[in-house]
Amino acid sequence: MVKKANGNVIFDFYWRKSLLFVFQVLVVISSFFLSFGLRFDFSVPQQYQPVIYSLLPALVAIKISVFWTSGLSSGWWRYVSIPDLESIFKSNVIGSFCFAAYVIWWSDAPFPPRSVLVLDGIFCFLILSGIRILTRILRESQLFNLKSKNGEKHRVLIIGSGAVGQMIVREIRQNPHLNQIVVGFLDNDLNRKGKFFQGIKVLGMTCDLEKICRVKDIALVIIAHPAVRSKELHSILEACRKAKVQSKILPTMGALINGEVSIQHIRDVQLEDLLGRKPVHLDIKSIQEYLKGKRILITGAAGSIGSEICRQVSAFLPDLVVLFDNAETPLFHIENELVTRFPNINYCLRLSDIRNMTEVQAVFKNFAPDVVFHAAAYKHVPISEKNPVEVVGNNLFGTRNLADCAHSYGVRNFVMISTDKAVNPSNVMGASKRAAEIYVQNLAAKCAVNFVTVRFGNVLGSNGSVVPIFKDQIKRGGPVTVTHPDVTRFFMTIPEAVQLVLQAGSMGRGGEIFILDMGKPIKILRLAEELIRLSGLIAYEDIDIEFTGLRPGEKLAEELLGTSEGVLVTGHQKIRVARSSGKGPVFPERSLEALEESVKKMDPEGVLRVLGEIVPEYCRGTPERKKDPVARPLYGSSKGAAAYVEI
Fold first, then answer.
1. Distance separating alpha carbons of residues 31 and 124, to the nearest angstrom
2. CATH number, domain at 314?
3. Are residues 133 and 228 in the same domain?
4. How far is CA 528 from CA 158, 279, 351, 478, 546, in A?
5. Which long-range contacts (CB under 8 A, 24 or more apart) does 562-571 make?
6. So what's the pLDDT on residue 629?
7. 215 shares its domain with 348
8. Segment 4-54, tens digit of pLDDT
9. Of residues 34, 120, 136, the one with CA closest to residue 85
10. Phi, psi (deg, nearest 5) at residue 347
11. pLDDT at 262
12. Contact 414, 451 (CB under 8 A)
């Protein structure tokens, strides 16, 4: 009656059911006899003995039927929990009531003492639940003391003794393959200190972390506190580094809400955790109103921001999403991902360039988009400085093509992605994006399309950005290269940025420049040091940090508002509107024609000269370079350029 599978002997399904049936029958019988015995001090009167034997078959049939109907014939005893005990209790109550009804209405036997029925239900519940609990205790005790093949189990300390931390304890106990043993909790709630949860003691607070790690020989610290603050997280990581122990953290709050927390979701602490960005709260209804069932065009769909727009837009169930990009392989990958994740959404790929007006017109004519998200742009500052013609052609004239077609074909919403580098620009990339902002604002005043611009700073982990480059440099053993010790940038995560882009798109009425709350600017040097620390290394000891000097077009600090702009609040706490102190800039048509002519002639000096006329605040070069002791020349050799990072 047994079979072998994967080398382990297991009971056949029907054999296991048979054993469980016999066990439950014995429990029902013994509980009935025990209740009579206890009621009469184990001296049952003669007149009740025939009653016991006459009612016993009916009692067994009724209770076993209720048990199996309620699902007590399934489940693993080793994983018994409170819901399982509740189910056993309810089944016993129902079984006792059904048995009482049988005796009253259908049986000819005398009604037994009421206390016997109560005791019978209690004993039956205690035996059924007690056996299961005992099974789990014995199994977990055995696993708790079990040694791995390689020696002792890894000793774990959990920060946070709440429900999440306790869930991690249970899973570690139930999964011997993890080869871990929980030594204790740390919790900053003074009322919990010294208390036991899941049999594990709260040893102290997070300020005691380093000391406890050394005393208890901890190998791994799990941060199971879903709301840990950035400052506290820094302290925890520093203590772990000093104690030379590994640290892990739980996933986002979204996973906790969905009940998906598991030891398998615990991951390394990432830079995003240390930035301490608060979750974005969206007005889902307003976003749905302009996306659900609509036709959406996304330019730059294969890029970092564009691909995330594709993902988040798809979640709002549009009728069609057109993916427009000139990068073939990335476009292939994002389409495969979207089709797999959102099989009910219609997708169409257009492999082309926004500078190709014929192709842009064909897209608007064939697909008649309701909403356009314009994320296509050249963004790398050093490359842009060396290729101003291509950058202006793409960032400005590509935007003009899209905006003009949106006007001609009656698009409802047009959302342009801009950058903080467009504010008082010191480089071609920023100036070209500012010129595009001006063009879109001017066009918005002439037509019914809701043209809006969303301006934000750097996003963590985008293609070619500072974080991936730092990680690669650390992986190669360093050095990590930073342009200047005082350089700062605004940062947010890609998903957060796109969430706010979608929200801003729903708020726009035409012509606004929305500014996202980027928080406080962060030193690039600090990012480098944190990434080295997260890699388990020590900055300036294991990995050197070198300063290479500001590159052409770079500033020490970026800005989100121009000198002539103010700011207005909106209905969302993380979104503001830039307000011009005057009527706003006017796009000179003659300058645009002259700029287009310079682009056609491939005249970089002409492009830069006319671009300066369109964007008067554009200052070629970097003002800070004059006082930068490690600045490199504006023009000259590009030797070693591969070592410099994009910030």
1. 5
2. 3.40.50.720
3. no
4. 28, 24, 37, 11, 10
5. 562/423, 562/424, 562/617, 563/424, 563/617, 567/515, 570/507, 570/514, 571/283, 571/507
6. 42
7. no
8. 444 443 445 566 667 777 877 888 888 878 887 777 777 777 777 777 777
9. 136
10. -120, 145
11. 54
12. yes
Q: Which helix (H) or strand (E) holds 482?
A: strand 480-482
Same domain as 197, residue 58:
no
Domain range spanning residue 124?
12-144
Is 274 inside a domain boundary? no
Token pair listed for 148: 């791995």
The reply to whether the predicted model has a pTM over 0.85 is no
| 1 within domain boundaries | no
Q: How far apart are CA 182 and CA 255, in angstroms?
A: 23
Quote the CA–CA distance of 546 and 525 in Å, as a whole number: 10
Q: Which of 289, 277, 154 is nearest to 222 (CA)?
A: 154
Rounded distance between C-alpha atoms, residue 569 and residue 532, angstroms? 38
Does residue 5 lie within any of the structural domains?
no
In a domain, 392, yes or no: yes
Give the CA count within 13 Å in the CB-facing half-sphere of 513: 27
Q: Indicate the range of 17-31, 268-282, 552-566, 591-605 predicted with least confidence.
A: 268-282
Q: Are residues 222 and 363 in the same domain?
A: no
Query: DSSP strand E in 152-210: where?
Result: 154-159, 180-186, 196-197, 200-204
Statement to judge: residues 262 and 333 lie in one domain? no
Closest CA to 560 of 550, 548, 574, 549: 574
Residues 222-246, buried b or exposed e (16+ Cβ, 10 A)? Answer: bbbbbebeeebbeebbebbbebebe
Contacts of 296 (CB under 8 A, 6+ apart): 313, 318, 320, 321, 322, 369, 370, 371, 372, 373
Instruction: Give the end-to-end CA distance of the chain in Å, rounded to a whole number.
Output: 68
Q: pLDDT, tens digit, for every residue of 490-521?
A: 777 787 788 888 888 877 777 788 877 766 77
Alpha helices by DSSP H, listed for 244-397, are 253-257, 271-275, 284-291, 304-314, 328-341, 357-367, 381-386, 388-392
Q: What b/e string do you get for 141-159 counting C-beta neighbours within 10 Å, with b at 16 or more?
A: eebeeeeeeeeebbbbbbb
Number of compact structural domains in the chain: 3
Q: Model confidence over 447-478: pLDDT tens digits?
A: 888 999 888 777 766 666 677 788 888 888 88
Final residue belonging to a domain, choices 117, 144, 171: 144
Residues in the chain: 647
